[in-house]
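Let's practice the habit of predicting before peeking. Look at the sequence and jot down your guess about where helices and strands might fall. Then scroll down.
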Amino acid sequence: MTSLRSKTIKGVGWSFIDNIANYGITFLVGLVLARLLTPAEYGIMAMIAIFVAISNSIIDSGFSNALIRKVDIERVDYNTVFFFNLVVSVILYVILYVSSPLISAFFKEPILVDVMRVIGWVLIINALAIIPRTILVKNVDFKTQTKVSVISSVLSGLVGIGMALTGWGVWSLVWQQLSRQMLNSLCLWVFCKWFPVWEFSVKSFKELFGFGYKLLLSGLIDTIYKNIYYVIIGRFYSPAQLGQYTRAEQFNSIFSSNLTSVVQRVSYPVLSSIQNEEERLYAAYRRIIKDTMLVTFACMLGLAAVAKPLIIILIGDKWLPAVGFLQIICFAGMLYPLHAINLNILQVKGRSDLFLKLEIIKKIIAIGPIVVGILYGIEYMLWGAVLTSFIAYLINSYYSASLICYPTARQIKDILPVFLVSLIVAAIMWSLSWLNISVYIQLPCQLLIGLILAFVIYEKLQLDEYIEVKQLVISALHRK
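Done guessing? Here is the structure:
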């Protein structure tokens, strides 16, 4: 248990640092670019996001998770997946290249033809890096991935800012993204020291695809759902409004997506390693949920409380419409890590069939808010997404409970105290916005009061998850 705990702590620590490097540096670069570029230029990039995201899901085809889960991995497994990924990526790039005029016509933006044909190279570049990245994840080696993220994020950020300063407009965003993936793939190959051998096993392909294809379909459904708002807003509203929405999403992803990514990447290989030890699996699973949601609720509700002064200070008044979007999105985003943990247990238990079934059910339910968005407006669509996020959690936790004997009611009971604490603290932080003071004074006051209140309340309650998180932070600081 000690080695597993140590492995998990190190994995979480380095995975968190990796996400800070990857998303944090990119976010800081984005702050600079947001002041140099217009919301409409960000909107143009968002229009093609769904096509790139779907293509990347197809290229991976669930093989990464299948390789991570497989215990007796062999060299031929890696090579089989590598060549499959590469061939599929080339085919999909050709499809995107040919269909780019149709996509441009759909959104009524002529520049999308050239943008799509250039950014499409990301598909092939990403395909080259799937196996090296999978090997590092399987070994819970996030330290190496952190090095890669720092290098690629910093250098690509300089490319994007340099191009924006010299008047390249939307192309600065294109080349920032393209150069980041190029550097990321190159560094993964250098640090991982894995090289393919020309071999392909039909037997290996069938075995891995037998598990992975259900995850592929689930991933496609989820990817379409996550990006469909870009399509709806881009088609029925203006590029500027889409740009405002994407900026709100990027602020939300600072915590929501990063926390989800950390939890998902670390918990999956760790829980997979003890998948046949029911008591240890239950204990680890429950601890991950409680610790994760303490941090998640505090970050997401706190972000909603300080959204307005934060956006005004960091990127300026021209992005003010993004404030309302961000505050709504935070309420949906606070459950994303919880979704990830519950879905991870389905994969750990080999129930990719159930994983797919749940994705279909949840996305059918999610059609309602999309229709509302088309008819009544973006805000109504986002509030609908909040509702479907809660419904999705109930569905996920109900089915995962049958595999690990951790029912939904027990989960809610475990996370309710930290939710209430975070809600009270966030409400007090938000109430300061009614004072007629400068945002430069308001924001630090909100953050200081929030930190002090949370600390005092948790010290008084002495919840197990608070004690554990505090110990993790203290031990990490001591190691530094």
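How did you do? The radius of gyration is 22 Å.
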